[in-house]
Task: inverse folding
């Protein structure tokens, strides 16, 4: 019972801290991480230990699936080259360089343990990237590249971690076998995930209730992740592939009611999951203090700071050449995809925030090897991973808003322009259908005229180019008019309920219709 109460209190704390972060306009991962660290110093508070294997299974699948579901496949595929260079090339580059730095910096650490440390701190975090960039207003391509990287890089980092860990535990490492296994794990995970997304898209058609449809989509990422891991494949890539496939098919296989309910449930679930991730990372400080008992703390912290700076510099050293060198070498690439402004490249290079994958990987290190010897420098690896998370989240994450403002990053209105195009084409298709069936006997003429007026309004006020000032003023006036009418309707229905003329059942039915009408962005 005490554990249940503790979990409920944690949920309350997550909600309060997230609200504070929103009020202060600070990305909530920082506030929640700080809150978790502060909680560890409260006397008498029960110790909360994050099981690393359970953490990956509980937190990664829904976060990855949700992010992949909302990712545009067109944009993801169009940016596959920079995403691949970051998610695979940069992860392996970081792993190798951090291993060399750690081997030179930390007395007595073996090469295998140094590579474990490199794999632990190499992947930027999907949770941190999404939570921060969703509110900073950076160009859409930058968001696509960074979120695409954070979706895929966990797989490459965890695969590298698996091989480095095996080298420490067993003392055996064969490079060619590692390369072969890498491709088997990656390709097998993608195929397994695509199959899972296909089966979900087929099966969801036969689920009769929107609430059950949402439940099925919530359970699917866990099933795909666990199934892939049980088969020895990459659970991360499987979950991402399933999310990308189902996100592509959802508009066809999910009815509107399921999409509306599912989106609300998923938003709540992901925010709650993200919140718990970061507050639990902070709470892990108590376990880390126990882990390093008997060690000299200051050298560990100093090594952690130096590795953190190395991780930041390594990313910058990779991103700029990877952005401009291929365009200099290949004129065709330069013509098809001109080099971006250096300011945008710097934002990508600065956005390597670490999170739950790094900490869970470090905490999952075994205490002893197969030969019964203590795991080489386990405490140092855990402390350094924790320091890297804190330094990158705060040192890179907090200044991001200020950096974007100072660099005067240009606004990106591509999504708005595409939205106007989609609205206009959709309304024109509706008008064409109305013209096609307008003479049929069953069509009421007054409703036909009403719908034609509605769709003509959308066509007239969704111009082919960006909306001018006059159109913007018209849109604002229309939204204000609609809001005033909606508020009057709600007040009238509530008044009927309060006077006992109708019951809450009828009130809810009418209120749902008003809510759905308000969700329609008829501009």
Result:
């Amino acid at each position: 019972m005490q554990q249940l109460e503790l979990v409920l209190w944690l949920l309350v704390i997550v909600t309060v801290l997230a609200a504070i972060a929103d009020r202060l306009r600070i990305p909530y991962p920082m506030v929640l991480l700080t809150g978790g660290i502060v909680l560890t110093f409260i006397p008498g508070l029960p110790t909360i230990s994050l099981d690393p294997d359970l953490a990956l299974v509980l937190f990664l699948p829904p976060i990855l699936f949700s992010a992949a579901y909302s990712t545009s496949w067109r944009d993801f595929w169009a940016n596959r080259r920079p995403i691949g260079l970051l998610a695979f090339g940069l992860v392996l580059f970081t792993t190798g360089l951090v291993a060399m730095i750690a081997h030179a910096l930390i007395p007595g650490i073996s090469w295998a343990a140094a590579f474990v440390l490199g794999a632990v701190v190499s992947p930027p975090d999907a949770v941190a990237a999404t939570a921060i960039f969703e509110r900073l207003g950076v160009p859409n391509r930058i968001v696509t590249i960074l979120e695409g990287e954070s979706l895929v890089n966990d797989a490459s980092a965890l695969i590298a971690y698996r091989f480095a860990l095996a080298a420490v535990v067993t003392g055996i490492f064969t490079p060619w076998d590692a390369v072969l296994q890498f491709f088997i794990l990656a390709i097998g995970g993608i195929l397994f995930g695509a199959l899972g997304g296909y089966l979900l898209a087929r099966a969801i058609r036969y689920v009769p209730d929107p609430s059950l449809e949402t439940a099925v989509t919530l359970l699917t990422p866990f099933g795909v992740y666990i199934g892939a891991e049980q088969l020895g494949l990459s659970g991360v890539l499987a979950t991402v592939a399933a999310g990308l496939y189902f996100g592509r098919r959802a508009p066809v296989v999910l009815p509107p009611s399921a999409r509306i309910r599912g989106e609300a449930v998923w938003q709540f679930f992901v925010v709650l999951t993200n919140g718990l991730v970061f507050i639990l990372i902070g709470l892990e400080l108590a376990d880390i203090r126990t882990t390093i008992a008997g060690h000299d703390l200051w050298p560990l912290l100093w090594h952690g700071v130096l590795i953190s700076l190395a991780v930041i510099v390594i990313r910058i050293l990779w991103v700029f050449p990877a952005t401009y060198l291929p365009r200099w070498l290949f004129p065709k690439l330069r013509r098809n995809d001109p080099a971006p402004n250096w300011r945008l490249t710097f934002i990508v290079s600065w956005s390597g925030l670490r999170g739950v994958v790094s900490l869970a990987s470090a905490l999952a290190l075994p205490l002893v090897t197969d030969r019964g010897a203590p795991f080489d420098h386990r405490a140092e690896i855990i402390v350094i991973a924790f320091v890297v998370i804190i330094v990158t989240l705060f040192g890179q994450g907090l200044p991001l808003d200020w950096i974007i403002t100072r660099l005067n990053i240009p606004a990106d209105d591509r999504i708005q322009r595409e939205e106007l195009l989609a609205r206009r084409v959709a309304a024109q298709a509706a008008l064409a259908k109305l013209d096609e069936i307008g003479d049929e006997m069953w069509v009421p003429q007054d409703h036909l005229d009403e719908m034609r007026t509605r769709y003509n309004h959308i066509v007239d006020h969704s111009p082919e180019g960006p909306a001018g000032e006059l159109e913007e003023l018209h849109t604002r006036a229309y939204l204000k008019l609609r809001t005033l009418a909606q508020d009057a309707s709600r007040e009238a229905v509530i008044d009927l309920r309060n006077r006992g003329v109708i019951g809450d059942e009828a009130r809810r039915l009418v209120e749902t219709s008003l809510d759905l009408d308000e969700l329609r962005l008829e501009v």
Q: What stands out?
A: Residues 297-329 form the longest helix (33 residues). The chain has two domains: 2-412, 415-519. The mean pLDDT is 83. The chain is about 80% helix and 0% strand.
